[in-house]
Predict the structure.
Amino acid sequence: MPGRTLTISLALALIAVLAAEVETAGPLAGSRTRDGIHMILPDEEAGRYWPRWRGPSGQGLAAGTGYPDSWSDSLNVLWKVEVPGRGNSSPIVWADRIFLTTARDGGKRPSVLCYRRSDGKLLWESTLPAGEPGKVYWKNSHASGTPVTDGQMVYATFGNQGLAAVDFQGKVVWRHSLGTIRNYHGSAGSPVLYKDTIIVYEDQRQGAFVAAFDKRTGKSRWKTERKASVGWGTPIVIRAGDRDELIVSSQARVTAYNPDSGKELWHCGGNLAEVIPTPVVGHGLVFCVSGRAGPTLAIRPGGSGDVTGTHLAWKQTKGASFVPSPLLYGNLLYQVNDMVSVATCYEAATGKVLWQGRLGEPKSEGFSASPVGVDGKVFFTNDAGETFVLKAGNQFELLRVNRLEAPVLASPALVDGRWYFRTDRHLLAIGN
């Protein structure tokens, strides 16, 4: 019997190892959890690419292996092309196409750009009619929202310039005005694709709202007023048991809505006044960050009404980021406090701080791009274009620092072993 016991023990150990590998293997693996709480994922084809803000998982996770973890402005650079105009939006990828948004003439001429992924050639630029862009913060731009695609059209938002849909040939199919956005730093959130609707929210001094639009026509499906006066985040849509929930983390509270109707489901207090990071979800929790002095909130979804006293699993004021979104990779939650350039790793289930480590020189608002997890490593890129490569795990281990020698405020896209970075003036592909 000792041999049989040993065999069973080895089998159980192997199962545990495989389970751990599945949990961190990529954006689709491990996302549909046993507790029934997970991010709403795109279809199988979309899952092969990087079709939205923070990739197919919506959480900054890339599937597969073979991505280089060393580069410079020349090392492992496959191609590099100039990007006209100015924008902080991240690239998205579908098949052999890369889409970016930009704005010329001080924001008066917003447009969608399409590049060929194989060699970086600019295929077309689709420009929206000129309009009044409004004012933006110096770190913001008039093209900060990352577009989203369903493989047929590209949907992009430009604040005062409205929401638009462009087909893969560059034709503007529809455009919907969002009105004048009165946010003192300008608009920055990205649109979300849910079923056959595009969802955005704009928190501002007057007329704050969250709204859904028909992706085929641009016509309004529903619009819900909000009380928040400022915010720059991107919502997420999750599955919580037997229902879907649209999560908006913004000023003073986190709010969940019915994504089909816009009706409020629950809210949880605890956020600070200015909120930028996009929430992540896993382990039965939604993790929301409200920056500067924190806190990070871990909320159990599925509630009703005010759930602050019933569904707040843990709250942590140490190490929160102001601009970058958090990264949930396996059982660990990673953040960078961009006010002092310090990364923090938490135990996701409990909020326990496992380690903190310095990422370069301390600088206020020194990070804008959100971190990425791939192939057992975590990547943090600062505004100077330095990427800090850490080994994923419960100890701080800095493997190397890669330098592009150019400002980087946009988050990268990762597909088929290649990184796609947007700097202040260029789009480049990095690969082996």
In short: Residues 115 and 274 are 34 Å apart (CA to CA). The chain has one domain: 37-430. The longest helix spans residues 2-24.
